[in-house]
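Lab manual, section 2.4: Encoding a predicted structure.

Procedure: take the sequence of the chain (155 residues), apply the prediction step described in section 2.3, and record the output as structure tokens. A sample record is shown.
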Amino acid sequence: MLSHLNEENQPRMVNVGEKPVTRRSARAQAIVSLPPEVSALFVDGELQTKKGPVIQTAIIAGIMAAKKTSELIPLCHPIGLDNCEVTITLNDDRDLVIECTATVHHKTGVEMEALTGASVAALTVYDMCKALSHGIVIRDTRLLEKRGGKSDYRV
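Recorded output:
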């Protein structure tokens, strides 16, 4: 049975009341493929558009989104993150690699927070660069690792 369904197959929030508080972390990634005309505009790791600095704005948006995951994804538990870090690097293929790492001491994990942070950072890059090209592609959004809880996971 899926954890978000009750015995009658109806949606429910998972009861974590009896679970122990442990340190939990998760790291997620999203890749933003930029057309050459956009990636060529990056100088010293930053791209300035009329909307402002793209990388810095995307990092802030990713952190803000991770903090609000329970307001965006139904049935996610509201948790106060201990830490959230978003990094954005330009790889050899001129793609932006966005990683979001979230940590908490709680009864539930932070996979959705990390995935939400990476996703919204990628969407922010798209929004800020779409006037330059609509050929931007967001791909490979995935969980890279999680620690804590019942089991650990790593790609």
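Check your result against the sample. The two ends are 25 Å apart (CA to CA).
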